[in-house]
Design a protein that fits this description.
Chain lengths: ~450, ~350
């Protein structure tokens, strides 16, 4: 500590002398007010999350990958390891994780719309449904547009339909967005709520196409790893037993898709697109007047969000191999929104945790008869999941309105050096006890000289 | 006549002193926190991060990359030609004609309700004039989208500060550069070479702009947490980031103390000297007189005067309409009229 103190202090003095002399020679206004620091009470709580974030941000890119990849692999291995406390009893842990993967994707997509651009979308399940029905309509034998009979081989039909599902949902996002994104706030929420219901009701009533309430069965899935044990491949719903069941395989597929989605969304976040989204969320009129084409970027948010929702829908159709309208109830929209709000709007990693909570907790209680030796009726608790989520949201809004992991977006790709310097300065200030090496000394001197001049 | 001025100065310095005292007092009460919150970071030493920004000429060069404004200095940049604006039975602007010339600071003043904001909105395409035309850079301003108007070269600040509070100061300024970006979503997703170059330039320019307006040290702080004066400066930096030909400042000194006003005047002159044209809407007569090259006075939607600050302030019509008729009709005393102004323009200093 003592070794590092001296050079810090001298460098700070040197820079302070340099900047004061630079300021003195220019005719530039030098009324930089003293660096008034926010009192401790007003500072956001610097807890474990903040420290973790700081540590992570300070790491170099390759180091982040070196830590991130094993971490992702560890998460991927969870349903194989099945840690005793974490695993579920009522349902298979693998399929719970597969469901988590899909909801996590949805949360990432919905986060773009709600968290980043601030557009309240209550009908997001509509895009999920369109993604699922696109795959089902093209590959189910029940559908009039089934292609698997003709030229599309069942082996790779699902994979071939995935980009189609993405394209169709993106276009549906464009179609829904172009007229409705001129609306704001509550009006937009109501229109999107209507959209979600329209999609479900269409699926329910277009008997000749979607099979109505009977739904579409035998949807295609990737036929990989065909063996004696798994005559239909490892992704088949028939592969239901054992550790490496279909759920685990689907979970792995969703992890790959999640990583890709995170990279895409992350690149967007740190570009003019992400900045435009946050600016629109903060003050749409000001953003427009500063030259941001707000309508175009809102539409982009909608389209990108819809496309990610479509991917998730395609995953769902492949995994369950059976698509019925009741799976796309408005209550699902609320559940997805709950994941985003719970995790922290605008924080793309936070919402994944939100998705985990939303999917995992009810399944954790399902079938459980005791926890830490206390007898409970897990099924009853799981039945009341919406009640508990509602309560959780109310409590969250009171104690932590920004969600479990409040967003701290980084909206600049190349501003890193600045933020690292800021951190160094902060450390220097709080580290130096006597105050001689404080960065605050610089503006304080300025004010003093200015006062004399006056 | 300047009886209230020393008081102001005293009050201002006392306020500064208090601020200073508070500043020296806080660090002691702060606990040692090695991983302190970056968001609440103290001043960044810009010279350390971007050594090239320690040189003011470099900053100027980055802030005003295209100095074509200096070429046709004095030519009209924006012309209001016989503009009339009617809202139902109310005539907000009545055959108003004036020019904003390249490279000047034009003050637009008038009592409350004189039509300043209406003129402003007509200039920026928010309203389409009932009759008459607005020419900007030789082209008629129609009812284009507002972001389009900004792209054509008119930037503005807001009377009531409208920053993006959750973004840092630097991010706010970089949003302003959006108008000059050419790549969009595909470029961002695939991080093309052009996109990366644009991003880098935007951040360099943003940093230079922050340094230019004097808040470079606050680059990584959230706009919401900046002191009031810095927020006003940040608004100016953000508007300049759009690379405007005309910068419109809507009461930039509202809520400033005399010392802050003084330094703001220096900044506005510096912006003009860098090759920008500035339109200043302001209530504070002293500020307007001190900084502008020309003043246009509106009253009840009509232009009643147009000329240098000296001409305008000695114009009896202006004195009567805007500054109020002096009780003792002491006409020779007019250059000292700054004193009563505060009385005549009640919003001075109070508006936020």
């Amino acid at each position: 500590m003592s070794t590092s103190d001296t050079p810090d202090a001298t460098s700070a003095k040197a820079t302070s002398a340099k900047s004061t002399s630079a300021k003195a020679t220019t005719s530039r206004p030098t009324s930089l007010p003293p660096a008034g620091r926010t009192p401790v009470a007003q500072r956001p709580h610097a807890g474990l999350g903040d420290r973790l974030r700081l540590w992570w941000d300070a790491l170099a890119r390759p180091t982040q990958w070196a830590i991130g990849v094993p971490f992702i692999l560890l998460i991927a291995a969870l349903p194989v390891i099945r840690p005793p406390l974490l695993t579920t009893v009522g349902t298979d842990f693998g399929s719970v994780m597969a469901q988590f993967g899909m909801v996590a994707l949805i949360a990432i997509g919905l986060n773009v719309v709600v968290g980043q651009a601030g557009l309240l979308d209550l009908g997001y399940v509509g895009f999920y449904a369109i993604g699922a029905y696109t795959v089902a309509l093209l590959t189910s034998p029940d559908s009039p547009w089934n292609l698997t009979d003709d030229w599309l081989s069942n082996d790779w039909a699902w994979l071939a339909c995935l980009p189609v599902a993405i394209a169709v949902t993106a276009i549906s996002g464009l179609i829904l967005g172009s007229p409705t994104l001129r609306l704001r706030g509550d009006y937009l929420a109501i229109v999107t709520l209507g959209f979600g219901e329209i999609v479900r009701l269409l699926a329910d009533n277009l008997d000749s196409v979607t099979g109505g309430g009977r739904g579409l069965s035998q949807v295609a899935y990737p036929r990989v790893g065909v063996s004696e044990e798994h005559p239909n491949g490892v992704f088949s719903a028939g592969n239901a037993s054992g550790t490496l069941n279909a759920g685990v395989w689907w979970f792995w597929v969703s992890i790959v898709l999640i990583v890709i989605a995170l990279l895409v969304v992350g690149n967007l976040e740190r570009s003019r697109v992400g900045r435009a989204w946050v600016a629109i969320r903060e003050d749409e009129d000001a953003a427009e007047i500063m030259g941001v084409p707000t309508f175009r970027f809102k539409l982009w948010a909608f389209v990108i969000g819809a496309a990610i929702g479509g991917i998730s829908g395609a995953l769902y159709a492949g995994q369950v191999q059976f698509v019925v309208p009741t799976n796309f109830n408005v209550i699902n929209s609320m559940l997805f929104l709950c994941a985003v709000v719970l995790g922290g709007q605008g924080n793309k990693l936070g919402v994944i945790v939100g998705a985990f909570v939303v999917v995992y907790l009810p399944n954790f209680f399902l079938g459980r008869t005791e926890i830490f030796g206390i007898p409970i009726d897990g099924n009853e608790i799981a039945n009341y999941k919406y009640l508990f989520f509602g309560l959780a949201l109310v409590l969250l809004m009171i104690f932590r309105p920004q969600g479990l992991f409040p967003a701290r977006q980084k909206l600049l790709t190349y501003g890193r050096e600045l933020y690292v310097a800021a951190r160094a300065a902060a450390r220097k200030v709080s580290g130096a006890g006597d105050g001689s090496g404080r960065a605050d000394a610089v503006p304080a001197v300025d004010v003093a000289t200015e006062g004399d001049a006056r | 006549m300047r009886a209230n001025d020393p008081e102001d100065v005293v009050a201002g310095s006392a306020h500064e002193d208090a601020h200073l005292a508070a500043d020296t007092a806080t660090p002691e009460t702060l606990p040692y926190d090695p991983g302190g919150d970056v968001e609440e970071a103290v001043a960044v030493d810009v010279a350390e991060v971007r050594p090239e920004l320690a040189d003011p000429t470099t900053v100027d060069a980055i802030v005003a990359p295209s100095r074509d404004v200096h070429v046709a200095e004095g030519e009209p940049l924006l012309s209001m030609r016989d503009v009339t604006m009617q809202f139902g039975g109310l005539t907000a602007l009545d055959h108003v004609t004036f020019d904003i010339r390249r490279g000047e600071i034009l003050g637009l003043i008038g009592p409350n309700g004189a039509g300043k904001t209406t003129a402003f909105n007509a200039m920026t395409g928010v309203y389409r004039p009932t009759s008459g035309t607005v020419l900007f850079d030789g082209e008629v301003i129609g009812k284009a989208a507002r972001n389009e108007i900004t792209r054509r070269g008119i930037a503005r600040t807001f009377q009531n500060i409208r920053l993006f509070g959750e973004m840092t100061a630097l991010e706010n300024v970089v949003v302003g550069t959006d108008a000059r970006h050419r790549t969009s979503v595909p470029g961002a997703v695939f991080r093309t070479r052009r996109h990366r170059a644009e991003e880098r330039d935007a951040i360099d320019r943003g940093m230079a702009l922050l340094e230019f307006v004097g808040i470079g040290a606050r680059a990584t702080e959230r706009a919401r947490n900046l002191p009031y004066g810095d927020q006003r400066r940040l608004e100016i930096a953000r508007a300049l980031a759009t690379e405007p030909k005309l910068l419109c400042l809507d009461e930039p000194a509202a809520g400033f103390n005399p010392a802050e006003k003084e330094s703001l005047m220096g900044l506005i002159r510096h912006i003009r000297d860098d090759g920008y044209t500035v339109l200043l809407i302001e209530h504070d007569m002293r500020l307007v007189r001190g900084v502008t090259d020309r003043i246009v006075v509106l009253e009840f939607g009509r232009k009643i005067a147009d000329g240098t600050p000296e001409e305008v302030t000695s114009d009896p019509a202006v004195v009567a309409a805007y500054l109020g008729v002096p009780d003792d009709a002491a006409v020779p005393d007019l250059p000292e009229i700054g004193g009563p102004t505060t009385g005549a323009a009640p919003t001075t200093g109070g508006t936020r």
